[in-house]
Amino acid sequence: MRLVQLSRHSIAFPSPEAALREPNGLLALGGDLSPARLLMAYQRGIFPWFSPGDPILWWSPDPRAVLWPENFHVSRSMKRFHKTSPYRVTLNHAFGQVIDGCSDDRDEGTWITPDIVMAYHRLHELGHAHSIEVWEGDELVGGMYGVAQGSLFCGESMFSRRVNASKTALLVFSEEFARLGGKLIDCQVLNSHTASLGAVEIPRRDYLQYLAELRLAPLPSHFWVPRRLFPAR
């Protein structure tokens, strides 16, 4: 297996099965972050991830971390917190603020470069990338964003500036997503935080099969219309 150099003149990708085993899932480098290329990547189970100053790197890890929304794990303490939550949760009200929050709130640095921010803004404007916002009063205190693929949602990043804010974003979104036909949330690579919330690893080939089926099963057209998700009133 070898790393593939992408052309700026074609949005084609190699098969995810050609990805390296070490580092796990690295498939290709180069190309660009145009909407057409990004959408082609997501349709094939591939996503960009690279550090500032590096070339664009494209990944499709094996195994893949996923979360079935109905299996979201709510701890006892989180249940108690959510019953009297001070937060309000909205959908697609402040995409720019959310991606900026995901970029800024990282002690270890960020892969969400200005080019990434601009690229996902374009996807949002085209109706493919979406945000979930958590507010305390009028202050944005947490949220997450990702890319829709039919009834599968590819989560990209989340942030939290208050206790349980990012957990609230994922909990409320998972419930609404499942209620209206959402089937699977892609978490890309498992970490301790997503594992604690119910994410698990599955073989890449299984993820690609789910993706092929679910991206052709759209949610109701009104699902992504900007609205309040929590509290209901």
Question: Could you walk me through the main structural features you see in this protein, from its secondary elements to its overall organization?
Answer:
It contains seven helices and twelve strands. It has 233 residues and is an alpha+beta fold. It has two domains: 4-61, 2-Layer Sandwich (Alpha-Beta Plaits), CATH 3.30.70.3550; 65-230, Aminopeptidase (3-Layer(aba) Sandwich), CATH 3.40.630.70. Helix 3 runs antiparallel to helix 4 (114-125). The mean pLDDT is 95. One of its GO terms (biological process) is protein catabolic process. One of its GO terms (molecular function) is leucyl-tRNA--protein transferase activity. Keywords: Acyltransferase, Cytoplasm, Transferase. Functions in the N-end rule pathway of protein degradation where it conjugates Leu, Phe and, less efficiently, Met from aminoacyl-tRNAs to the N-termini of proteins containing an N-terminal arginine or lysine.
Concise synopsis of the structure shown:
The chain is an alpha+beta fold and about 230 residues long. It is about 30% helix and about 25% strand.
Tally the helices: 7
CATH architecture of the largest domain: 3-Layer(aba) Sandwich
Identify the strand order in the major beta sheet. 11-5-10-9-8-7-6-12
CATH top-level class of the largest domain: Alpha Beta
Stretches where pLDDT is under 50 for at least 5 consecutive residues are: none
- Helical residue percent band: 25-40%
Rg from C-alpha positions? 17 Å
What is the name of the CATH superfamily of the largest domain? Answer: Leucyl/phenylalanyl-tRNA-protein transferase, C-terminal domain
